[in-house]
Design goal:
single chain, 106 residues, three-stranded antiparallel beta sheet
Amino acid sequence: MAWPAINATLVSWENFLETMIAITAWHRRFAEHRAVLSPVTCIDDILAAKKDGKVGVILGWQNATPLENDLAASNCFMTWVCGSSNSRSTSGIYSAMVVGNELTMV
């Protein structure tokens, strides 16, 4: 397998509820295609997907819109996914990465 993991962009400008619906749809895909797809929530999941000949899928979004100006909403995302979010503001480009139970701004 050429790629042990990919980032699947869930949403671009969708709100919290629409993002949770998209996450649910991906969990359905994981169940339906478990022979070839594997959800990724940490580095060990990527290594396991590679070992098992599957594609690990990191669920992400394009900006912080799904948080709806409530950083506490990130707790829901941390429970469901390990993803990345890029947010552009007038002062520059910010990235937030959710890994395990930590939200890191880079």
